[in-house]
Fold these 2 entries.
Entry 1:
Amino acid sequence: MKKIRIICFILLIQTGFLIQAQDYQQLLKEKRQKINYGFFNVIDVKYHHGRFLKNSQKLDNIMDNPYDAYDVRIGFQSTGLKKKYDALYGYPVYGVGFYKAFFKGGELGSPKAVYLFMRAPVIRGQKLRWNWEMGAGLSYGFYKYDPNTNPDQSVIGSEHNVYFNAATGISYALNDRYDMTLDFDLTHFSNGSTRTPNLGINLTGLALGFRYSFNPVRNYTKAVDSTFRPAVKPDFIHKKPEKYQRHSDIIVFGSVGGKTTTTQIYDGPTYFISSLSLDYAWAYHHIGKVGIGLDGFYESALRDYPTRIVNPGFNDLSYVGWHISHYLRLYRLSLVTQAGFYLSDHVSHKGKLYLQVGASYHITERLFARAALKTRNGAVADFIEWGIGYQFPFAYGKVR
């Protein structure tokens, strides 16, 4: 009798497993019938070849020669689930990459970078596309300036720097899985004057690449159905974004930072910097704002540069300017570009024009954190701003 109960118990368990397996197979079958089942990933491999935008006469053996580089990255193809921004940007690919450059000569080292990127189409054809892309991250592996061991390296004073890349080019679909890409790109390395010298390194050239598209969901389903072949490229979900209500924002942003001066290179002190800006911005679209505003800066470096000031007051170390601005929204990020003009006479050594280029991360729709590079004399790096801001929407207009 006891053996019969054990046998019945085993049969009951096996029956339960069979029912669960059937249910799981039915669940997978239903999922497979849904649009865009799985995860749409890509792997890019690129080879770069180009020239330096030369800014130093001491590195002729490097900057008069071409450079080579490669990068490898993994990306995620959007499908339209985030319908507001996926559709507005033409269903972009975004992800993370690794970059390595090879320079002739030994003064600069062999820099590497880890970065985030986004690639989106300008024109999307059946097989041929015209794309744009941007990438930003952190680089390492530079041989920094040293007056004793590396005196000719007069362009960058730190081992770790910011990496930025912008590119435009074409891609051609060879088949469902493989694409070939050809881009013209610009690459910039800089530390934002946290260490001097900081002339920066600028590269321009062509990048030839291949892209492999895959859907890893098959690894989870082949044990149940080995014949199932998931799509490797999605069917984009075409939905009109919700109507947009035009409005204006008052944007307040405060920051702190540090900088070194060009007269105290290598081992000079780091000076405290702070700024406060007030911006009026008009939101003309889901993804764009234009504005005008005022900037106030406090810079302790002015006590020593361009001339030494004994017992400086607040007015000696502060200055103001005004700017025009543009904000481009990318999901939870906003790319911020501003062109400003100094109103204070005692900073004439900075020229008349300054730029501010940065990115804001929207913690909420109103509260954001921002990192931005401020320049002087046009496009010469001055310092990096790290700060928090808040925007106050008002003056709501028509819904379009």
Entry 2:
Amino acid sequence: MRPMKSRWIGVFLAAAAFSPAFVGTPVEAANDFRLKPGAITKVCLECHDEFAEILKRPFLHTPIKKGECAGCHNPHTSKHEMLLAAESGEICQSCHEEMFEGETKSTHQVFVEGKCSSCHDPHGAKNKMNLIRSGSDLCIECHRDLTERIATNEFEHDPVTDSCVECHNPHTSKKSVKLLVDAQPSLCLDCHDAKDASFRQVHKNYPVQKARCTACHDPHGSNTAGLLFDNVHEPVGERACGECHAKPTSSSPFALKDVGLKLCEGCHYDLVVDALNKSMVHWPMLDDKGCVNCHAPHASPEEFLLREPQREVCGRCHADTVARQARSLTEHPPVAEGACNECHSPHSSDNPFLAKEATTIELCANCHEWQAHSTHPIGEKVVDPRNANVTLQCLSCHRTHGTEYEHFLYFETTDETCVQCHTDFRR
């Protein structure tokens, strides 16, 4: 009789031999199961007869062509869905290693997550590269917001109507952001000849072949002629680049005629004077970049020529505020929807925090009927019992950008909030 220890070692090794963890490199694993000749595909098809139709498709995955079902699937058991020999992304990587090599400047989210089957059929398809849909129809499935906007464009960009992969790499890009197959302006110059007389004329002879094309143009199409973004800075719309830049024949044709606020003041004099006459000025207006900290100087898809949606523009400096709202149990619409200017003046104000109203009560009353909200006394004549130097107002109980508790309260329950002042009721 064998010792007990030896018997347990034998049982462990036997179990390990059939464990998915011992499969090895997935596609190289087919022979590990010692299947009979011809059994790899034949046995599978006896049950999975639907694959008879799949095998008729014009484009088949190489393991399917070779009948290597066990290259990706464990025929016995697995801790992964569909009896996969490993996580789907790991299986794909074992053969397509070149897709994962080297440093990249941008990566497709589904690629990072190993969700290759979101785009590719792992068995076979009617489209090249085993894509589940052809051309841009595949991208539409995820990028619906962009697709809906493209559908309303009056002016189309040809590559967009042809195929997204004309400009974008569907997996990774080693050359540029946004999965672009090449950096700007090289990518654009593959189609647009900068030496062409009409090209030079429309750009007023400025050497834009050295510039970033998307500073003015929307690559996905536009409702403005020339594929300019829908909101265009007036000098750009009038092709009066010389209003802000040096002459195109100068040694530095893109050099600005002045710096920061001084340049913008030439056209926006009233706005600048009004802003500087306030007691508190938003600091981005005053550094060397000035207005272009927040605004695009040429064109933008956003209102007021903002560089990005307002939430992103403000969030670049006020990331803590955006993060606080994300943690808040109750959404404050102006913050959640990125409408910071509902409460704050973006340029300057005579009020703390660049608030649009002199008092918090007046500011909140623009949206909230506070008199119907509560009978609790608030206002200039009501002193906060916790601090005789301040009066009771909305912020005495609520935090405007949200808290971890409901209704922006500082404490978890209403009772806890009330007893901060009404100490006689503390338990």
